[in-house]
C-alpha cells in the first residue's frame, strides 16, 4: 500500500477529480464558451451566426463603452493611490501592539466584511440630497449642499469615497504584515546614526516594504477595475453615464439589452486588462519570495 | 497604551503618538456614516419625513426592527442567504481539501501540469466567465435555485491553493508513521491529516461563507424571482425605489439587521478572516 503513496498512480488522481470536474465545467468551459460567444451574433434565443471580430468592432465603436473605459481608468487612477496611501498611513500609525491599536485595526478592517449593498446604502444615506448626513451637516453650517449622486464629476467621486471606505482594510493589513517583517537591526543602526524619524521612514521603512507597496498597488488595480455594484446601486451610472464603469457596461449590454455577443466581446477586453495586471502581480510576488530565501 | 517591547526603536514615524491621534480622528470620521445609519434605524419613519435632522433628538424607537419581524420577505432572503452560503462553503471545503491533499502529498500523472492550470484559474475574473455561465445555467434550468446560486463559487481555485499550502506545511513524518501501518492514502487523509487541518478549514470556511453571503453579481442575474433573492440582492432591490419605499428608518433597520450576522462572525473569527483575506490577496 505504501507504494501508492510515493509512486505516481492514476488512482491517486481520484482525489482531485471532484474539484477538477467543477473547475472544468464552471471555469474552463465558460472561459472558452465566452470567447466563442464574443465571435457570434447571440441574443436571448441562443447562439446565432459567426460574425468574426464584428462584436469587438461594435464595442470599440460604441461611445458608451469608451466613456465607461475612461470612467474606469479615472476611477482606478484616483482610488488606488488613495487606498495605498491611506492604508500605508494607517499601518504606520497602528504598527505597535496595544489595546488601542488592536481595536482600531479591527475597526478599520470591519467595513471590508460588509456586502456591497450595505455599503452603498450607508453612503447613499450620507449623500442623498435633503435628508443625507452631508446635506444636514452643511445646512447646519449654512452651506449650500451639493447634490453628490446626480452631479457629473461628483457622482463618480461619491462612488470612490464609498469604495475607499469599503476596501481600506486589506491594504492596511498587508502593510502591517510587511512592517512586522522589517529586521530590528536596521532600526538600531539608524538609531546609532541619530537619524530623524522622517529620515528613518524614507531610508529604512519604505525601502524595506517597497515590494509590498508594489503588490498592494497591483492587487488594488485588479480589484478596482472590477468596480460594479457601488456604481450601479448608488448612481446607476449617471448622470449621463459619467459614473458608469466597464463592468456595469458589460452587465447592461449582456443582461439588460441581451446583446450577449457584444457583452462577451467587452468582457474579453476587461479580461485582458486584468490578466496583464495579474501577470505583473505574479512576477512581483515570485521575485519577493526569491529575495527572502 | 502600556509599555511596549520596542522602546529602543527610534519611532521611525511608526507607532508615533501624533499619527495615532490622527488615526483615531480618522476612525471617528469613518464610523460617522455607520452611526448615522443606526440613528436613522431607531427613528420613526413619519418623523424622518419631516426632516432627518431629528435623528439628533429624542424620541427613539425600535418600531422599525419590529416591522422587520412582520415583513416576511427579509426573513426569507435571510434564509436563502444562509442556505446558499452554508452549501457553498461545505462544497468548497470538501473539494479543496481533497484536491489540496492530493497536490501536496500524492504522486499522479500530470500533477504539476494540472496544478499550474488550476493556478491560472486564480487569474480569471468573474466577468470573463459570467455571461457563458449564465447561458449554461439557462440550458439546465438552474436559475432561481439554491444549487444554481451555490455552484459557481465552488469553482474558485483559491480554496485549492490555500489547502495545498496547508497540507504542505504538515510535517511529512506524520504520514510516514501512518504508512508503516499500511494505511491507504484515503485513510491517511481522513484519519491522520484532515484533523490537523481544522484551523485551515476554519479559515477557508469563514472566508468562503463571507464571500457567498456578500456575493452580488451572480445572484443578481441568477435569482430573478423575488422569493429566491439572497439578502444582499433583496436589500439592493428595496433601495432602488428609494423615495416611495418603506421609509428611511425601515431601510436602515433592514441594513443593520442584514449586516449583523457578518459582523458577529467577524468579531468572533477576526484572526481567521484577516489571515484568509491577506493570504488570498498575496497568493
Structural commentary:
The complex is a heterodimer of chains A (293) and B (283). Chain A has helices at residues 2-6, 17-38, 54-61, 63-93, 99-110, 116-127, 133-140, 154-167, 169-181, 184-192, 197-208, 210-225, 229-234, 246-256, 260-292, and strands spanning 40-43, 46-50. The two termini of chain A are 36 Å apart. In chain A, strand 1 (40-43) and strand 2 (46-50) form a beta hairpin. Chain A has a two-stranded antiparallel sheet with strand order 1-2. By secondary structure, chain A is mainly alpha-helical. Chain A is built from 15 helices and 2 strands. Chain A has a domain at 56-112 and 166-292: MetI-like (MetI-like fold, Orthogonal Bundle). Chain B is mostly helical and 283 residues long. Chain B has 2 domains: 17-62, no CATH class; 72-245, MetI-like (MetI-like fold), CATH 1.10.3720.10. Helices cover 72% and strands 0% of the residues of chain B. Chain B is built from 15 helices and no strands. The longest helix of chain B is centred in the N-terminal third of the chain and has 34 residues, at 72-105. The radius of gyration of chain B is 24 Å and the shape is globular. The two termini of chain B are 34 Å apart. Mean pLDDT of chain B is 84; it is low at 1-12. At the A-B interface, helix 1, helix 2, helix 4, helix 5 and helix 6 of A face helix 1, helix 4, helix 5, helix 6 and helix 7 of B.
List the helices and strands and how they pair.
The complex is a heterodimer of chains A (293) and B (283).
Chain A: H1 2-6, H2 17-38, E1 40-43, E2 46-50, H3 54-61, H4 63-93, H5 99-110, H6 116-127, H7 133-140, H8 154-167, H9 169-181, H10 184-192, H11 197-208, H12 210-225, H13 229-234, H14 246-256, H15 260-292
Antiparallel strand pairs in A: 1-2
Helix pairs in contact in A: 2-15, 3-15, 4-8, 4-9, 4-12, 5-9, 6-8, 9-12, 12-15, 14-15
Chain B: H1 17-41, H2 45-50, H3 63-70, H4 72-105, H5 111-121, H6 126-139, H7 146-154, H8 158-169, H9 173-180, H10 185-193, H11 198-214, H12 217-222, H13 231-240, H14 248-268, H15 270-282
Helix pairs in contact in B: 1-14, 3-14, 4-7, 4-8, 4-11, 4-13, 8-11, 11-15, 13-14
Amino acid at each position: 500500500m505504501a507504494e501508492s503513496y510515493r509512486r505516481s498512480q492514476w488512482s491517486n488522481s481520484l482525489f482531485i477529480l471532484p474539484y477538477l470536474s467543477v473547475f472544468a465545467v464552471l471555469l474552463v468551459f465558460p472561459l472558452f464558451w465566452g470567447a466563442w460567444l464574443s465571435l457570434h451574433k447571440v441574443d436571448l434565443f441562443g447562439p446565432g451566426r459567426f460574425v468574426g471580430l464584428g462584436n469587438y468592432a461594435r464595442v470599440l465603436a460604441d461611445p458608451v463603452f469608451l466613456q465607461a473605459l475612461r470612467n474606469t481608468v479615472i476611477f482606478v487612477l484616483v482610488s488606488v493611490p488613495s487606498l495605498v496611501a491611506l492604508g500605508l498611513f494607517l499601518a504606520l500609525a497602528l504598527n505597535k501592539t496595544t489595546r488601542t491599536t488592536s481595536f482600531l485595526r479591527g475597526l478599520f478592517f470591519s467595513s471590508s466584511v460588509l456586502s456591497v449593498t450595505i455599503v452603498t446604502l450607508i453612503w447613499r444615506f450620507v449623500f442623498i440630497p435633503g435628508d443625507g448626513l452631508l446635506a444636514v451637516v452643511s445646512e447646519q453650517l449654512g452651506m449650500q449642499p451639493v447634490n453628490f449622486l446626480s452631479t457629473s464629476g461628483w457622482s463618480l467621486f461619491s462612488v470612490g469615497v464609498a469604495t475607499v471606505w469599503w476596501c481600506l482594510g486589506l491594504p492596511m493589513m498587508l502593510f502591517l504584515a510587511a512592517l512586522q517583517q522589517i529586521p530590528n537591526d536596521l532600526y538600531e543602526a539608524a538609531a546609532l546614526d541619530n537619524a530623524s524619524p522622517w529620515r528613518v521612514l524614507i531610508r529604512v521603512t519604505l525601502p524595506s516594504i517597497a515590494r509590498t507597496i508594489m503588490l498592494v498597488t497591483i492587487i488594488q488595480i485588479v480589484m478596482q477595475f472590477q468596480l460594479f455594484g457601488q456604481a450601479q446601486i448608488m448612481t446607476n451610472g449617471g448622470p449621463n453615464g459619467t459614473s458608469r464603469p466597464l463592468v456595469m457596461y458589460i452587465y447592461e449590454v449582456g443582461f439588460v439589452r441581451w446583446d450577449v455577443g457584444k457583452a462577451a466581446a467587452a468582457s474579453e477586453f476587461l479580461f485582458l486588462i486584468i490578466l496583464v495586471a495579474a501577470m505583473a502581480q505574479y512576477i512581483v510576488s515570485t521575485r519577493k519570495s526569491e529575495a527572502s530565501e | 497604551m502600556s509599555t511596549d517591547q520596542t522602546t529602543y526603536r527610534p519611532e521611525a514615524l511608526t507607532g508615533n503618538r501624533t499619527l495615532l491621534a490622527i488615526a483615531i480622528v480618522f476612525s471617528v470620521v469613518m464610523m460617522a456614516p455607520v452611526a448615522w445609519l443606526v440613528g436613522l434605524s431607531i427613528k420613526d419613519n413619519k418623523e424622518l419625513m419631516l426632516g432627518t435632522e431629528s435623528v439628533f433628538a429624542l424620541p427613539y424607537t425600535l418600531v422599525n426592527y419590529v416591522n422587520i419581524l412582520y415583513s416576511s420577505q427579509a426573513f426569507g432572503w435571510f434564509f436563502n442567504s444562509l442556505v446558499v452560503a452554508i452549501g457553498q462553503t461545505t462544497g468548497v471545503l470538501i473539494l479543496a481539501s481533497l484536491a489540496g491533499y492530493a497536490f501536496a502529498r500524492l504522486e499522479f500523472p500530470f500533477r504539476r501540469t494540472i496544478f499550474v492550470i488550476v493556478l491560472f484559474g486564480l487569474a480569471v475574473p468573474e466577468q470573463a466567465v459570467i455571461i457563458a455561465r449564465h447561458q449554461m445555467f439557462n440550458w439546465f434550468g438552474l436559475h432561481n435555485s439554491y444549487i444554481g446560486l451555490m455552484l459557481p463559487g465552488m469553482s474558485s481555485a483559491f480554496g485549492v491553493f490555500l489547502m495545498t499550502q496547508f497540507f504542505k506545511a504538515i510535517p511529512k513524518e506524520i504520514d510516514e508513521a501512518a504508512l508503516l501501518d499500511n494505511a491507504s492514502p484515503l485513510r491517511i487523509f481522513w484519519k491522520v491529516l484532515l484533523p490537523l487541518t481544522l484551523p485551515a478549514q476554519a479559515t477557508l470556511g469563514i472566508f468562503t461563507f463571507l464571500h457567498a453571503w456578500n456575493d452580488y453579481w451572480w445572484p443578481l442575474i441568477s435569482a430573478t424571482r423575488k422569493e429566491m433573492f439572497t439578502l444582499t440582492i433583496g436589500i439592493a432591490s428595496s433601495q432602488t425605489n428609494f423615495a416611495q419605499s418603506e421609509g428611511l428608518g425601515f431601510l436602515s433597520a433592514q441594513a443593520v439587521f442584514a449586516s449583523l450576522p457578518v459582523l458577529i462572525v467577524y468579531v468572533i473569527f477576526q484572526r481567521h478572516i484577516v489571515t484568509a483575506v491577506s493570504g488570498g490577496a498575496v497568493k
